[in-house]
Amino acid sequence: MAALTRLLKPSSISFLFTRSLSTTTTAAAVISDIESEHPNFSDPKSSRNFQWVFLGCPGVGKGTYASRLSNLLGVPHIATGDLVREELSSSGPLSHQLAEIVNQGKLVSDEIIFNLLSKRLEVGESKGESGFILDGFPRTIRQAEILDEVTEIDLVVNLKLREDVLVEKCLGRRICSQCGKGFNVASINAKAENGRPGMSMAPLLPPQHCASKLITRADDTEQVVKERLRVYYEKSQPVEDFYKSQGKLMEFDLPGGIPESWPKLLEALNLDDYEVKRSAVA
Ligand SMILES: [Zn+2]
């Protein structure tokens, strides 16, 4: 609790916020801030077992796979968007400032994200969590460099999907305007070409009571989806190169939907008999 109390003291928060106003703050300066605020996380010799990062472009389904793996491995699935939402809905010390940033349509700075993430990891460690799966983070090389100093990442899984399939999948997304559940009406049957295998993905159709209430997100148009991908690739390439140079990057081409991809992913991660091993131990 001492660590938390220290974390939440108002002076350190206003300090972080002052720093976050400057976009020219170097990664080294941020790292030294984090080290002074979160001393436990400058120690790379952590006892955690799985310290993984999941990368992948919007729409690839990384949240789904990260969440399934987190259930399998018994480690938390941490998406920074969720951390921001949780802080916003709590009466936490950052919630007021965060609300202001979000209401003004501004991007939440790396400094705030790292503050929330370090806090989350410290709480997890004190509860005996044996690792984590970070979802969609780091997004930029600067974030990757800071994360590298804050904690040790042992594996980075980069999920990839044929771009034509990805676009079709994004265009098939629908949300029920009543219950808010997400569905996908795209029935994908991509032909094999240029040495790429064919691929089929079944739609995720809504139950009858949702079917007449489906809406499409305004930003799920072909033009917006393609632009989103372009921006993603531009930012993620240096992140991928960074982890590749450390020998931590595992590229994984999704062979289809969840039923085809999940067993293949477990195989690639050497976890195909993990459930069996774990239950044998238990
Ligand atoms: Zn519904």
Describe this structure in words.
GO terms for molecular function: AMP kinase activity; ATP binding. Helices cover 50% and strands 15% of the residues. With 282 residues, it is α/β, with parallel strands linked by helices. The chain has a domain of 176 residues: P-loop containing nucleotide triphosphate hydrolases (Rossmann fold, 3-Layer(aba) Sandwich). The strands form 3 sheets. Strands 2-3-1-4-10 form a 5-stranded parallel sheet, sandwiched between helices. Strand 7 and strand 8 form a beta hairpin. Helix 2 packs antiparallel against helix 7, helix 3 packs parallel to helix 8 and helix 5 packs across helix 6. The longest helix has 24 residues. The relative contact order is 0.14. The N terminus is likely disordered. The structure holds zinc ion.
Write a concise keyword list for the protein shown above.
single chain, 10 strands, alpha/beta, binds zinc ion, 13 helices, 3-stranded antiparallel beta sheet, 282 residues, 5-stranded parallel beta sheet, transferase
Summarize the structure.
The protein has 282 residues and is α/β, with parallel strands linked by helices.
